[in-house]
Amino acid sequence: MKKVSDIFKRKGSINVAVSSNTPVFDALKLMAEKNIGSVVVMNENKYLGLFTERDYARKVILHGKNSSKLNVGEIMSEYLPKASPNSTLEECMEMMTNHNVRYIPVFDNEEYVGVISIIDVVKETIMDQKDTIENLKSYIHFAG
């Protein structure tokens, strides 16, 4: 059964982070440059939360707020479900579905490790299914 640690083995655990006092507009520019949908919010290497495109859409645009004057710390998602490197992909899918989120921070004990997205989970699941299919084809070929 695939785990979060398998995702990090494939993609690494490089995180794009901003501080809580970063203007929302600057965080959005960074997200666009990196082609990502969220950034980790950290102060002095301490995880505070995630700022996502969804946060922007629901907490800035819909309320007519100015993204140049608002900081990510004011609207970030703080209380997301958390995973560990040993969490299974199925557990992550269930957390994401139950909490209606697309990103989950990962902690090893109390230490922040990284973030995974629903896309990461889907990619890893597809790769696992392809491996299973290839193994079954090899088994059928040698058994037949």
What would you say this structure looks like, in words?
By secondary structure, the protein is an alpha+beta fold. The protein has a single domain, classed as CBS-domain (Roll), CATH 3.10.580. 47% of the residues lie in helices and 19% in strands. Strand 2 and strand 3 (46-52) form a beta hairpin.
Q: For the record, what is the CATH homologous superfamily label?
A: CBS-domain
Number of strands: 5
Global shape: elongated
- SSE sequence, one letter per element: HEHEEHHHEEH
Strand pairing plus helix content: what structural class? Answer: alpha+beta
Q: Alpha-carbon distance between the termini?
A: 27 Å
Strand order of the largest sheet: 1-2-3
User: Helix tally?
Assistant: 6
CATH topology: CBS-domain
Largest sheet: 3 strands, mixed
The portion of residues assigned to helices is 40-55%
Instruction: Give the DSSP E fraction (strand runs of 2 or more residues).
Output: 15-25%
Count of spatially separate domains: 1
Radius of gyration from the CA trace? 18 Å
CATH class: Alpha Beta
Name a few traits of the molecule.
two-stranded antiparallel ribbon, 144 residues, alpha+beta, 47% helix, CBS-domain, three-stranded mixed β-sheet, 6 helices
